[in-house]
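Batch manifest line 92
LIGAND: zinc ion
JOB: complex structure
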Amino acid sequence: MACGRRGPQSSFERLHVALGEESARVVFDEPGEARCGRGAYICPALVCLDRALKKRALGRALRCTPLVDESALRVELLKRLDARWKRESGGR
Ligand SMILES: [Zn+2]
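JOB STATUS: finished
ARTIFACT:
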């Protein structure tokens, strides 16, 4: 994990590098999407995303220097946090 926290994989969000035609970008995994390339896990928390971005832990974990759209990643993480919260607090 980017921050050293341990736990089941389902309690983390996974990021991976998507290879585009001209550049590599860091994006979150989509459910059901084939997982290609190296991934990195972060806690579902903005502080952890920020820490990973600051320390460039992602580039190290992913072994490249991809483009990182920080604001897009933050927005996406917030969406995922919201979905997690709904899953966990909603009825089953
Ligand atoms: Zn963390």
